[in-house]
């Protein structure tokens, strides 16, 4: 976080960027690059994205002109392949498929889009296979979300804190292993030396 924060601070500041472009160095004394800065807080300010923000975006995007344009572009780009269309359009899941198909069909009927075989003759087997795959992925994503303790408004902070605690625990385990392996040997070695001296 600290390194990324410093890189971003340099690149986003016109003066720092100009100095770097000319000399290849940065002013380490600049306020933006202070070592005592709370870099986690800095990144949270830059990327204050919450679950509510995402939900609000989805509400505004779905059924909008922007979504329709994206669906048409994906249809043309992938020549009617619904697998790839559904993967590329933002904010959609398998429950949106009937709505997306209807949008495409209306555009075909009105002559805005060509009629690709991959779309109009897609087999039910392929459609069901796509649905099963996406349902499986959704379950796995939900399980991962629950394991990471995410889902609230402070997802980034929760994830970072969780990983930080995991690293601390791993370090504690590592140190305990070293102590068990070498600490005991050191004590044993000390006893052997003392025994030899007594002899």
Automatic annotation (TrEMBL):
Instruction: Provide the DNAJC9 HTH domain boundaries.
Output: 61-127
Pfam family name, one: HTH_DNAJC9
Annotated GO CC locations: cytoplasm; nucleus
GO molecular function annotation: heat shock protein binding
Please list the residue ranges that the record marks as compositionally biased, kind Basic and acidic residues: 134-146
Q: Extract the ranges annotated as region (Disordered).
A: 129-153
Tell me what this protein is called.
DNJC9 protein
Q: Which organism is it from?
A: Sakesphorus luctuosus
User: What's the gene?
Assistant: Dnajc9
């Amino acid at each position: 976080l600290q390194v990324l924060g410093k890189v971003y601070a340099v690149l986003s500041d016109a003066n720092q960027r100009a100095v770097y472009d000319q000399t290849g160095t940065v002013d380490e004394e600049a306020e933006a690059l202070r070592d005592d800065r709370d870099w986690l807080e800095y990144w949270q300010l830059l990327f204050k994205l919450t679950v509510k923000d995402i939900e609000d975006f989805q509400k505004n995007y779905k059924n909008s002109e922007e979504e329709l344009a994206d669906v048409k572009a994906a249809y043309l780009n992938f020549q009617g392949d619904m697998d790839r269309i559904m993967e590329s359009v933002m904010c959609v899941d398998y429950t949106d498929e009937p709505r997306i198909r209807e949008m495409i069909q209306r555009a075909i009927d009105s002559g805005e889009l060509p009629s690709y075989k991959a779309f109009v003759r897609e087999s039910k087997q392929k459609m069901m296979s796509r649905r099963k795959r996406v349902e499986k992925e959704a379950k796995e994503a939900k399980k991962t979300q629950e394991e990471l303790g995410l889902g609230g408004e402070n997802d980034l902070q929760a994830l970072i804190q969780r990983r930080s605690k995991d690293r601390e625990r791993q370090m504690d385990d590592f140190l305990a292993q070293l102590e068990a392996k070498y600490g005991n040997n050191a004590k044993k070695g000390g006893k052997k030396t003392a025994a030899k001296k007594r002899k």
